[in-house]
């Protein structure tokens, strides 16, 4: 195996824009997005489809871009977290706004994938319950422990926008 | 020679408050996003043997792969007079690339440098390394046996640090105790699992200086290590950091920086490395530990004496272990008033992944012991475990095991807050509650010292546009350091925090900071920033006071403006002040340093002033145990900590509750496993961390000091170590079995239940 | 490695026969994972996503006997399908707990069968429901019972060039009840320590048929028809559940790994089989 892996031309629509690449046949969509498109919102963590930091939408459904060869995305629509609201008039989507409002992040490495998955789930089923969204996001891991705020974001997403600010802990001054 | 990565560029600086949209959309960037045009890529060839002599390395096939530029190994390093390849905090026992010998599976043996990462990775699989295997050892207790395989010729008996603590006469006092309890508690190696993998890019500049971009928690430590390794003046090494997607201790000290510098030196071009997940597992580990604790109490259950023996597994190389194993030992008596303490600690090299600090460093292992023991002792005495702790917890004026006279002690209040939260609330309802599900509650407390001695420096400056910038070398890694530092500066300057930018670390521009770890940033770097901001405020006041005919302390600061109290016409923005000063910018400087002598301990007894203050945490949980499967569900968790002066309640909540969830994984599911010297689960399918479906309801209490001059205390670790013992104590409360070996897996609980049933039948 | 995208099944099969180290790829979750881990080194990947001549490739159809689920149907679509939920609810629940939401949006029914992953959830359910697998190499099709499809760890009865074109699931008749239980010993997101698929038909209050199939405990789905046969003619009650569970626990020869030792898996077989059957009883077994 002293030759390079074969390349192949491929056209993929990334965030609404058709992109043509000459990719290695074993190149993952994650690599293409990060190395060729400079996409920062799609991130490597586990490399085996377990953690969700590389989540993209493929024709509207959340998938792991680390388990998808770019050649397999030929002719498909890929949406990244940073491109999610690119076609709408607001800067961020309703799920993303819910995460912002709930302060649902610490280091935030995992968060764009989570918000994207939440958006896909609520778009598929606008009547989805919080429990359903939790099931849909259970495969998006967070190490900082932002889960309480993520749950809060999902509750906000289900109940629609409110003006409440995130709850703060009980404070006792001595 | 290679082009500069970004020569002369100012340090990165960003708004730290109000970055939520970028963080959620994913346009907030991390160290791993840092790409520099024209870099080559390096991939490490790693040892597949746990212990052995390298007999040959054949890179011919790899070099034949198109796109491969070079392959270097330990022999090249050893032959290079410009390199001092061995490093370590206390003893230089670790080679940047294996030289002659490998000591763990995953140790970098060679570096393949190519025009793309994929090419380097494919070629790395074709570097043929022959290793003559030597007997290996993974258990630190076995590593201490006389006939055990020896990892380092220079460090006999696999000893990577031996310490004692002597406070009073524990052995004599133990003989007088009314009741003595002894047990051994073990905790395994675990992985930090930062979501963002390690990455670094290194380049040698035309002037012979070295520049490294890296995802590190400790830029100045990295600078020092690189300077030593490449025989450079530290000023000739520039370490530039970025935000981290989690670190938890795994990104402290030298990680990839030596490798990328080495690779760049070999090929004369910038070289980048980024780890795969299995390599992250092979790069840093928590210390596994075995702690035997003997405790004597009097008739009233008051602690009389404690004797503690600790064996730490330091992995193949010492790194910080010779120091940190002592720190762990010092915390091992727990947050209790114990007149007589004897602790003996030994750390041992084994053929496993080198260890390092792990959120709540060296404390989870000992807290697991003293808090499990606390409940066991209380049970044997027939006393409620909360009440037993209340009687024995440290209060102001008590002496700690180091002889420190304690101050700002809030344990009893923290414990009460947790106990109230657990008992006052109605338990959450469960629709699936059956006769095979039992509930129980447990608490645990922890004491952690903060890094002492320590030093941080800061600058706060304002330019002619009125832009206020904080410059420190603190690292933003999700804990909210950047936002806290911005707020601390803004409050001193009476301006909105949203208008303050914070530098990202760059040793070429940002002042010294020891490290971002040990929950020290808000405290040590924060105090330096406040002092710098106060200095800048005074400097601004100075500029206007004389022209306005008032004294500097009469100048009113509000919303980024200064004014004269008596004369509404006398009002200037900070930008106006800078412009009228003609200085271009005004700069305040500040520093925090622990008092002289702080942290200096007696080498034999470890007596002295160990810490300028103490991190205090108490956690309580309610669990449900399935008695047929042993499965433990943590239903809710309440964490409490003392924050000193509180900077931001919301970020504090995230640290306290997030800390408990971090601790949850260690409590019930996390463990790196070795078979025949190989780590067998270096991936996130076989090594599990908690998911959204595993987490309990969380709540928290922050005790704080309203005095504006009070010192802030770090809170990022105080709820991590107590989580595991709180869970084990709750499991005992629920089903009457005691697990002394972490993690508290379903299988261990079921086995213990079966043994208990068998015992109950016998009796 | 070449990536090929044939348009017909015949072409796909011919390519597979032509290249010895070729591998079919459908959703890709398994194949890409193995590629990334350097566990396989195919010279050619033959994508099935461009194949247009397999009838109902991406459809769930009702047939005279039950359901035909095309090989290209995503697991998430199986889980959501009203037809599957109605006629094979245990398969819908198993498909709905494979991996995570993203895996289910990418992995296909045919790929799931062809992978023969010992810890995947659907295989044991397919066996329990008496499903059959339609395979085709472009020249000839054949039907393989699910119970004979899985032959070893990651090994199937598929011959070179054969593609799983569909899975046929008999419709649950009156009095039928089925369930799938995924028991995880660590995180809720873990692969199963033990999976239990059950299917029963009750007639006049007694068992007319019973299937209990274990997943994740051995190389392939495990069942002991002589044990379940012994329960026929009896009501599905605590005693039957207990007996079947005990027998299964005795007969199983479980694997041993970090999701559970052989001892623990055996114990969990006992607990989860009993619980599954009792749940089934509660679902109408007693009625």
UniProtKB/TrEMBL annotation, chain A:
Domain called 2Fe-2S ferredoxin-type: residue spans: 8-84
Keywords: 2Fe-2S, Iron, Iron-sulfur, Metal-binding, Oxidoreductase
InterPro entries, alphabetized: 2Fe-2S-bd (IPR002888), 2Fe-2S-bd_dom_sf (IPR036884), 2Fe-2S_ferredoxin-like_sf (IPR036010), 2Fe-2S_ferredoxin-type (IPR001041), 2Fe2S_fd_BS (IPR006058), Beta-grasp_dom_sf (IPR012675), Diverse_Oxidoreductases (IPR051452)
GO molecular function, one term: oxidoreductase activity
Name this protein carries in UniProt: Carbon-monoxide dehydrogenase small subunit
Upper lineage: Bacteria, Bacillati, Actinomycetota, Actinomycetes, Geodermatophilales
UniProtKB/TrEMBL annotation, chain B:
UniProt-listed InterPro entries: Ald_Oxase/Xan_DH_a/b, Ald_Oxase/Xan_DH_a/b_sf, Ald_Oxase/xanthine_DH-like, AldOxase/xan_DH_MoCoBD1, AldOxase/xan_DH_MoCoBD2, AldOxase/xan_DH_Mopterin-bd_sf
A Pfam family annotated for this UniProt entry: MoCoBD_1
Tree of life domain: Bacteria
GO molecular function, one term: oxidoreductase activity
Residues covered by the Aldehyde oxidase/xanthine dehydrogenase a/b hammerhead domain: 25-135
Protein name, entry field: CO/xanthine dehydrogenase Mo-binding subunit
UniProtKB/TrEMBL annotation, chain C:
UniProt keyword Flavoprotein, yes or no: yes
InterPro entries: CO_DH_flav_C, CO_DH_flav_C_dom_sf, Diverse_Substr_Oxidored, FAD-bd_PCMH, FAD-bd_PCMH-like_sf, FAD-bd_PCMH_sub1, FAD-bd_PCMH_sub2, Mopterin_DH_FAD-bd
Start and end residues of each FAD-binding PCMH-type domain: 1-174
Molecular function GO labels: FAD binding; oxidoreductase activity
Flavoprotein recorded as keyword: yes
Keywords: FAD, Flavoprotein, Oxidoreductase
Domain of life, per lineage: Bacteria
PANTHER family: XANTHINE DEHYDROGENASE SUBUNIT C-RELATED (PTHR42659:SF2)
Name of the protein in question: Carbon-monoxide dehydrogenase medium subunit
